[in-house]
Design a protein that fits this description.
The complex is a heterodimer of chains A (197) and B (165).
Chain A lengths: L2 H9 L7 H46 L5 H4 L1 H24 L9 H42 L5 H42 L1
Chain B lengths: L2 H8 L3 H11 L5 H15 L9 H15 L7 H15 L4 H15 L3 H11 L4 H8 L3 H26 L1
Classes of the chains: A mainly alpha (197), B mainly alpha (165).
Chain lengths: 197, 165
């Protein structure tokens, strides 16, 4: 095929998307955007309603109940405050993420370099988290041993807690290992290959 | 920013995005990649300051996304059958050109992604200077790479044609 044949073929109607297909694709992407927004608003709205209900009951109890001791029962409000902060943070982050394609203003070379840097940072975070989780195991063991030694936990309590926390830690390590080796390492290799091109 | 406004803004470029998805994705994944490209452009639009042509900006975002996109590669056979059954709804009808185009796209997919991107931009009518700016390479480098890529494309198209014959 000669270069002029390729150019002609490229300009031919067979290489043009139909008006109908254009409408369908556009409609689909707009629906996806709306659905994603709606799903997120419903989810955060539901969480806000539940948190609001709990906050109202807690606040009402604190104000109306004479026996309420702020000095000893402030923990629930600290926890609620934390939950509200996280919810607000999630909403703000989602909005930023929803409206941002961080590599739009960069040329391909710079965008690939930025993606590589982001990938390296993610892998570093996973390594730090992995080390943190591994370090947590002996620390937790030491903590449990101390609690048992001073008589604040029975051997059975220690065993149950160790199993529960050990399971959670193992699961976290497993998830991070899978993410590191199955997602981020292949991505790093692919980006490196693209850059070397 | 209302979505209807976005619809009118992106509409003239959907054809180009569809061709990018056709060059970068297997038939079963083309629809997904096209959706992903449109979504990326939607996300990137607020950052558009008008210091380049809209088409240049759209190409930049779309090529950035296409190069780093990974298809699902699941149930390929089943989905390919569905897609080929719907192909006449998506693309202009011309049996002979259609078959040659399939060979052309198959050959393009055999090229390294960066060369594929360069060729696509050239075929879409971008100047070497704009392609260089988009890829972050010099104009002379674009010329050299395109020359090599076109030669390789011709060889691959000829191979595709002889394989099918």
């Amino acid at each position: 095929m000669k270069p002029e044949d390729i150019d002609r073929l490229w300009q031919s109607p067979a290489n043009r998307i139909t008006q109908k297909a254009e409408d369908i694709m556009l409609d689909k992407v707009l629906k996806n955007i709306r659905r994603s927004r709606r799903g997120f608003h419903i989810f955060t709205g539901y969480v806000a309603a539940v948190l609001g209900g709990i906050s109202f009951v807690a606040g009402y109890t604190a104000v109306k109940r004479e026996s309420f001791d702020w000095g000893q029962e402030w923990g629930v409000f600290a926890l609620l405050g934390l939950c509200w902060c996280v919810l607000i943070l999630i909403r703000v982050q989602h909005r930023r993420h929803e409206r941002a394609f961080p590599y739009g203003h960069m040329n391909l070379s710079d965008a690939l370099a930025a993606m590589q840097a982001a990938n390296a940072l993610t892998r570093l975070r996973l390594k730090v988290m992995g080390v943190g989780l591994l370090v947590a195991v002996p620390l937790m063991g030491a903590g449990l041993w101390q609690l048992q030694a001073v008589g604040k936990m029975s051997a059975q309590n220690v065993m149950q807690f160790a199993m529960l926390a050990g399971g959670a830690l193992s699961l976290s390590v497993l998830v991070n290992l899978v993410r590191y080796f199955r997602v981020h390492m292949p991505e790093a290799k692919r980006l490196q290959q693209l850059r070397s091109e | 920013m209302p979505n209807d406004d976005f619809a009118e803004w992106i509409r003239p470029h959907i054809g180009s995005l569809a061709r990018i998805s056709r060059a970068f994705a297997a038939p079963a994944d083309r629809d997904d990649l096209l959706q992903e490209l449109m979504l990326s452009v939607w996300k990137a639009r607020p950052a558009f300051r008008g210091d380049s042509a809209v088409s240049t900006y759209v190409f930049r975002v779309a090529h950035n996304r296409a190069l780093t996109w990974i298809g699902r590669k699941k149930q390929q056979g089943v989905r390919e059958a569905e897609i080929s059954a719907q192909a006449h709804l998506l693309w202009g009808v011309d049996a002979e050109d259609g078959a040659q185009l399939e060979q052309l796209y198959a050959a393009m997919q055999a090229l390294p992604p960066m060369d594929r991107s360069l060729l696509l931009l050239m075929l879409e009518g971008m100047s070497y200077a704009d392609i260089g700016a988009l890829h972050g390479v010099s104009v002379s480098n674009v010329g050299v790479r395109l020359h090599r890529a076109r030669a390789e494309l011709n060889r691959l198209v000829a191979k595709e044609a002889s394989d099918e014959a």
